[in-house]
Design a protein that fits this description.
Blueprint: H1 19-40, E1 62-67, E2 73-75, E3 78-80, H2 83-96, E4 101-106, H3 112-125, E5 130-132
Parallel strand pairs: 1-4, 4-5
Antiparallel strand pairs: 1-2, 2-3
Length: 143
């Protein structure tokens, strides 16, 4: 008889079976561990090389790339007519300054494909430290 060990004379089992509860908790723990791993390091993330603090002894070259809605690309204020000219300029700057960084600022009307193409040009030239510049706008009044 299942209830012989209890002091309850009616024979009812008043204990809670802990095995299903433990099983559910272990499954939830495994799910959280797997999803936490994926959240920390997505499989196809764009690799970022964050800047490190320096003592200020050296200067660092920053290539300011401005992409206009008309298709014009300026690097450090100089307009460039072709992708080859941009690549040659960036390769020369990277050879002179190996720790060069790039900041891309594009107009809102520039196609995403064009921005990715410029990212690819910078990557081919050896620039791996790239940031995106944004223009802050004042919030529109609520209606």
């Amino acid at each position: 008889m299942a209830a012989q060990g209890n002091n309850d004379p009616s024979g009812m089992i008043s204990g809670i079976n802990m095995t299903p509860l433990v099983d559910i908790m272990l499954v939830l723990l495994i799910i959280f561990l797997v999803t936490a791993k994926l959240a920390v390091s997505p499989p196809h993330a764009f690799p970022l090389d964050l800047p490190k603090s320096s003592t200020g002894d050296g200067t660092q070259l920053v290539l300011a790339i401005n992409m206009g809605k008309d298709g014009q690309i300026d690097v450090n204020g100089q307009p460039f007519a072709s992708d080859d000219a941009i690549t040659q300029y960036v390769v020369a700057q990277h050879a002179a300054h190996p720790e060069a960084r790039a900041v891309i600022q594009a107009d809102g009307k520039v196609l995403h494909e064009r921005v990715i193409h410029v990212l690819d040009l910078l990557s081919q030239a050896g620039i791996s430290q790239i940031a995106f510049g944004v223009t802050l706008t004042s919030p529109s009044p609520a209606k």
